Amino acid sequence: MYQFALMNFGGAANSGAGNASGNGAGGGIGMIIMLVAMFAIMYFMMIRPQKKKQKEEQAMRDNVQIGDEITTIGGIVGRVVTVKDDSLIIETGADRNKMKIMRWAVGTNNTANEKIEAERQAAKEAAEAEKLAKMEESKQKSEAQRKKSKKRDD
Q: Nearest 5°: phi and psi at 121?
């Protein structure tokens, strides 16, 4: 009430400064919390998945072996002939031209992708076969129960 009286009598500058500093401290902590929360969200939504993807790509490039079919980031498809520390030699085309490329230029390992796809397909077929076997088994059980109940009724 005293502050209200000061505002009416020309003390508005003093009371306004007091209110601003009180609200500013609370607002500053809130602002810091918001910044930390935004950084955490950005880290988990953008930075972390990107680092995970880079690690997977590096592991794929490190696991390239002789005989693998690869595609470079430039779109050249070839079969690996020689593997060195930081470079590969690949054969391309029907006339088997040889090219030396850097390891970082490998875009995809087509041979590894084909193996993974074949494993997924085999697992899918095995799951379907298991599902069919369970369905057949349950069908046989239900028929056996019907026969038992029919015998009881007679």
A: -65, -40
Centre a 10 Å sphere on the Cβ of residue 72 and count the other Cβ atoms it contains.
19
Site of tokens 């875009």: 107
Tens of pLDDT along 104-149?
999 999 988 888 888 899 999 999 999 998 998 888 888 888 888 8
Q: What is the CATH number of the domain that holds 129?
A: 2.30.30.60
Alpha helix stretches (DSSP H) within 10-109: 12-42, 48-62
User: pTM for this structure?
Assistant: 0.53
* Structural domain harbouring 70: 63-153
Number of structural domains in the chain: 2
Of 91, 89, 64, nearest in space to 77 by CA: 91
